[in-house]
Design brief:
By secondary structure, this protein is an alpha/beta fold. Helices cover 40% and strands 12% of the residues.
């Protein structure tokens, strides 16, 4: 009876050997890799506790491939099938079985055989077996559906050949099952397990563990096929494989004994004399005092240290819950990249026994191009990232090893596969990776195992729209079912959304608990901490804000570029740094062009999302170097300087400007932008380090016609945000918009009142606006309802009742879910974008990397590197080219334009770059720019510059 066969070498593996290997690996995973929190959850569902749980995991991993002991499977390799026929196990050929063979995939066949054996030999009922056998049926990523089970039941000849050999087939199957029960200690426990009703979260975790054990045991680098080069006993084989795999164990956090001040001083790089802030101290106290670890929502102003508060709380919650890692979920790749080095620095400071190793991941589609992550990937061991169900998986092959990080932090090679990467202990990445856990998709159980053993931190919770919120709420419900501690961060969270998040995690409020949830929705305190346990009642804390606040005077500004230039000429007469935020890239570029005519090219900087990746990273670094915090920003301009930016200036970057000019935006985003205004003290409380005219924080609001009876936002802003959010924002800001010293926006005191007012259900605004607001509100409600309905199509159902098998768990799902543009489109309500790699075509027709690229961290030149088209470029040149990825703007997201663009881009199909060893460029669309950095694509003229990024106009 065979289980594995290699067509190239003709090596093979007996079924009994693979069953033993898989069971042994499962035991090793349980003992040395699985976090305590996951082991505790599984153990809690079984009468014998942890001992039962380990035995069950090992036994299920051992029997998972029993479906290979069937004619439907065994016929696939004719020479091995013939050996079985010679021993009396008759079967038709693969061709003779035809299409019917597909009715019996070996996972489903194994589920049926195991269920029969439990019923016939151990007295189980059909209702009792499914909750256990589904881990066998779903070990290739999708639990069977009811219709598939019924179809196989109508074709018993696929499980045992009709005729004289049927009884022999059955005897072999039963002997294997009896042997596994005996060998793996399950026989004596089956009677007790028969009475169990496994919660669906436990069924998911058991299924995931079987998948992981199978994948490791299926790796021929670790478990060689027969004939073996070096014959070994079973135990020797497992010891050698486990040593070679060298998986880092889970984080084992100890609860810190320090008070909040000592804890923060030891874990973070605080400035001399810095004191822990009230929000941070309250977060530590709440994490310690919660009845059990659960959900914590931290609402506090920008710059209050919410990230540090979350990490400190995570350490405490991990110690209390047994979680084995942290996933820090952020809105964008840019914010993920910014967070990753902060996560590494925190990990470097965590106490740990000598020799402890942690697996670390930057989780987004371009992570391999991040220098911090690339340095860790070079330390990850020698085992290939084999995914037996993902043959299309591309291996990451970074060339940079320049980061100096603690030796115990590694990006482990086996954990780099696209379906396994989230199993790393410490992860920073886009929130999509978390939302995928709420999407019906293949190998969903692995995503659930990945989050079930971690502390989850969700940053910028206000940044997710209704479509993403549908998935987030369902994920929170499952996290509550797994009893996973979650920390949610926001500076501007509407109260209604706060309640939705809390209730999604804890479960729907009933009876006396309703009042506590109503209080959560009605709380107007700020800062505010809210905590709840699964099935519990929420509690709130109201820490003080830090002593420093900022009063921001708001003024209307006519939406005219000459008016803007004149105003800034006056404001910057004595120097100063201004941030101008526009809601579209086109408005950014138009404003920058006019301001450069007035102030000169050197005094105007552009920042937006349409830069190639390497330029975008350099742009962010340059902004921080010039406009970051005092003591860290060494090159702050001495003369007037203007940064014209899109929404990229709202998040993640710690920037500090003297004056803010912004397009009207939803009020929470406006407040985020105001957080970049007078963010730090320069010259004490009086801000004497700023130009005298700019020592009072002021925000000029434009992008709207203020002279019409109802303010009329510019078309670009309406396209991005919609009329209702903009008008509600304007209505909330009306008392502050006259520039009166009596009515500034007081930060942080006014943050929550403004947000709650703008997002309240009650009407707002002058009577003259009522009709326009009602029309806009109707469209807004229709849009939200449409988003919720479309998101629900592939949304995972809530956890079912205990004992109900996971059959059809991901039925009618989305297939594979991964961090590609197609994958992200499944959990974000955005048009599918088109990504290209930008290169330059020289006058002689050859291709090269962009000519202005600076040296890398090791001093190696990156500009103008040759990209030969008759062979694979050097690894360094290819990686440099790949780092010039660019997502084309919205004009290219419409189906007809996208199809035309793809057709034109595919005309430059470089065959040599599609080879197996072309890891960086294979499958990429290449956009070549001419010597003037221009191109034509799908009826549009493209112009790119290092200073302005991509500009698109119609031909």
């Amino acid at each position: 009876m065979w289980a594995k066969h290699d067509h190239d070498s003709d090596g093979w593996l007996p079924l009994w050997r693979h069953m033993e290997d898989s069971a042994a690996v499962a035991g090793r995973l349980w003992d040395g890799w699985l976090p305590l929190s996951v082991r505790t959850l599984i153990a809690g569902a079984l009468p014998g506790g942890e001992s039962d749980a380990r035995q069950l995991v090992v036994w299920l991993a051992g029997v998972h491939d029993i479906g290979k002991a069937t004619p439907a499977f065994a016929c696939q390799v004719e020479q091995l099938a013939q050996v079985m026929r010679d021993h009396g196990l008759e079967m038709r050929s693969r061709q003779a079985m035809g299409a019917n063979r597909r009715l019996a995939p070996h996972g489903l066949a194994g589920q049926v055989l195991l269920g029969e054996w439990l019923e016939e030999r151990h007295g189980w009922t059909a209702k009792q077996t499914g909750q256990f056998t589904v881990a066998v049926g779903g070990h290739h990523g999708v639990p069977p559906e009811h219709g598939q089970i019924q179809a196989l039941n109508h074709h018993p000849g696929l499980l045992r050949t009709h005729g004289p050999s049927r009884r022999l087939w059955q005897r072999v199957q039963e002997e294997l099952l009896e042997g596994c029960a005996e060998e793996f200690g399950a026989r004596e426990r089956l009677a007790a397990w028969r009475m169990v009703k496994l919660p669906q979260p436990v069924q998911v975790l058991l299924s995931a563990l079987v998948i992981v054990a199978d994948w490791i045991a299926s790796n021929p680098d670790l478990f060689p096929y027969f004939p073996e080069d070096v014959p070994r006993t079973g135990s020797e084989r497992v010891v050698a494989a486990w040593r070679h795999l060298d998986l880092p164990g889970p984080w084992r956090a100890g609860e810190p004994a320090e008070d909040a001040q000592e804890l923060f001083a030891s874990r973070f790089d605080l400035p001399p004399g810095a004191k822990v802030r009230p929000v941070q101290e309250a977060s530590v106290e709440l994490a310690r005092s919660m009845e059990e670890p659960g959900l914590m929502v931290i609402e506090a102003p920008m710059g209050e240290g919410k990230t540090e508060a979350a990490l400190a709380a995570a350490e405490i919650l991990a110690a209390r819950s047994g979680a084995g890692g942290v996933f820090f979920a952020l809105p964008t790749m840019a914010t993920g990249n910014a967070m990753f080095p902060r996560l590494l620095d925190w990990l470097d400071r965590l106490p740990a026994p000598e020799g402890t190793r942690h697996s670390v991941l930057l989780a987004h589609s371009k992570a391999a191009l991040n220098d911090d992550f690339a340095g860790l990937m070079g330390k990850g061991g020698r085992v290939a990232a084999v995914d037996v169900d993902g043959s299309d998986e591309r291996e990451w092959r970074p060339s940079s090893r320049n980061r100096t990080a603690a030796a115990e932090l590694v990006a482990h090679a086996w954990l780099r596969g696209r379906k396994k990467a989230m199993l790393s202990s410490f992860v920073a990445g886009t929130v999509d990776q978390l939302l995928f856990a709420g999407l019906k998709s293949r190998h969903l159980a692995l995503r659930h195992l990945a989050v079930a053993g971690k502390i989850i931190v969700i940053d910028e919770a206000h940044a997710y729209d209704t479509y993403m919120g549908v998935y987030l709420d369902r994920v929170l419900a499952w996290l509550g079912a797994y009893r996973v501690p979650v920390v949610v961060l926001s500076a501007t969270l509407p109260a209604g959304r706060r309640r939705e998040l809390v209730e999604a995690y804890a479960g729907k409020a009933t009876g006396e608990a309703m009042a506590a949830f109503d209080a959560v929705a009605g709380a107007g305190d700020y800062p505010l901490l809210t905590a709840v346990t699964p099935g519990g009642v929420p509690v709130m804390r109201q820490p003080a804000a830090s002593a420093r606040g900022t009063d921001v005077k708001l003024e209307r500004l006519e939406d005219d570029l000459d008016v803007l230039a004149d105003r800034l000429t006056s404001e910057l007469d004595g120097g100063g740094c201004v941030l101008v935020v526009r809601n579209t890239v086109r408005r950014v570029l138009h404003a920058a062009a006019v301001l450069r005519q007035r102030f000169g090219d050197a005094n105007v900087t552009v920042a937006h999302s349409c830069f190639v990746d390497v330029d975008r990273a350099a742009k962010d670094a340059g902004l921080l170097q010039r406009f970051g915090p005092p003591g860290k920003a060494e090159d702050r301009p001495k003369t007037a300087h203007i940064v014209v930016a899109s929404q990229v200036a709202e998040q993640s970057l710690d920037l500090d400007f003297d004056l803010l000019v912004t397009d009207l935006a939803p009020v929470d985003l406006l407040l985020q932008r105001m957080g970049r205004l007078h963010r730090h003290l320069r010259g004490g409380e009086e801000q004497t380090g700023r130009p005298e005219r700019l020592r009072q924080a002021r925000c000029l609001v434009t992008g709207v016609d203020w002279d019409t009876p109802v303010p009329t936002p510019v078309p670009g802003s309406l396209a991005v945000y919609g009329a209702y959010a903009l008008l509600r924002s304007a209505a909330a800001l009306l008392p502050h918009l006259d520039g009166s010293p009596q009515h500034p926006v007081r930060l942080p005191a006014d943050i929550s009142p403004l947000v709650q007012r703008a997002y309240a259900d009650e009407p707002d605004g002058p009577a003259a606006w009522a009709e326009a607001l009602e029309t806009a509100r109707t469209r807004y409600k229709e849009h939200r309802a449409d988003q919720a309905e479309r998101a629900a199509t592939f949304r995972l159902d809530p956890a079912g009742r205990p004992g109900r098998p996971l059959f059809s768990w991901v039925a009618a799902g989305a297939g594979d879910a991964d961090d590609t543009r197609e994958g992200r489109a499944q959990v974000r309500d955005s048009r599918e974008g088109l990504e290209v790699v930008v290169v330059q075509r020289r006058a002689d027709g050859t291709l090269a990397t962009l000519p202005w690229l600076t040296q890398d961290r090791q001093g190696r030149p990156r500009a103008g590197l040759a990209l030969p088209t008759d062979q694979v470029p050097t690894a360094f040149a290819a990686r440099t080219a790949a780092s010039c990825g660019l997502r084309l703007p919205i004009q290219f997201s419409y189906a007809d334009v996208m199809d035309r663009a793809i057709d034109e881009l595919e005309e430059l199909h470089i065959r040599a770059w599609q080879m197996k060893d072309s890891h960086w460029l294979a499958g990429q669309l290449i956009l070549p720019l001419d010597g003037d950095c221009r191109a034509h694509l799908a009826g549009f003229a493209l112009r790119y510059s290092k200073s302005d990024g991509l500009e698109v106009t119609r031909d």
